Amino acid sequence: KAGVTQTPRYLIKTRGQQVTLSCSPISGHRSVSWYQQTPGQGLQFLFEYFSETQRNKGNFPGRFSGRQFSNSRSEMNVSTLELGDSALYLCASSGGYRGHSPLHFGNGTRLTVT
Amino acid sequence: AQKVTQAQTEISVVEKEDVTLDCVYETRDTTYYLFWYKQPPSGELVFLIRRNSFDEQNEISGRYSWNFQKSTSSFNFTITASQVVDSAVYFCALSDYNNNDMRFGAGTRLTVKP
What we know:
Helices cover 0% and strands 53% of the residues of chain A. Chain A has no helices and 11 strands. The model of chain A has no long low-confidence stretch (mean pLDDT 94). The interface between A and B is medium-sized, with 28 and 26 residues.
């Protein structure tokens, strides 16, 4: 099975712009979660989608949004970018929607905001 | 609220030494799941192990072993006879039964020197 695929791998944006990141989960996985990883804050949960519905949301401002399509692929959008949004954004998919299911992560998208 | 603490920020050992990575967690749930992930320099988090709150049996997988103790809310990870390829950041994580919003510790960077 192919793993979780995230595109693009690297992005450089300017403050005030918006960005869309894409994630294709493992085939058959219907749960997709997004995490932000920074040296200062570590791994922080952004949100989780299951069957096109957002089930859980972390403590991030409304500039961070996401969606999931009927084929389970997910996109994450960040509007009005700030310097502090520079981070590695990780997507993970899971075979179940309960907490016992391990998350399988992609390689991430490294976003740099200048 | 759920919380995971990995007090060791960085550990450096020489190849063939044994090393233990500590993980302490907090939760009010009676059913929960604990995980360990490895993040090599490539960035992708790799799932290593899952433990549920009702199973305190220790587990060994090759050079890896895990010690789960509910009495001290700890889930420690030991690498026996460490190798250079074990160099990575290791994360401990916690999730409850109902949700996939897995919470991660800050991570421990392990460096194994030849």
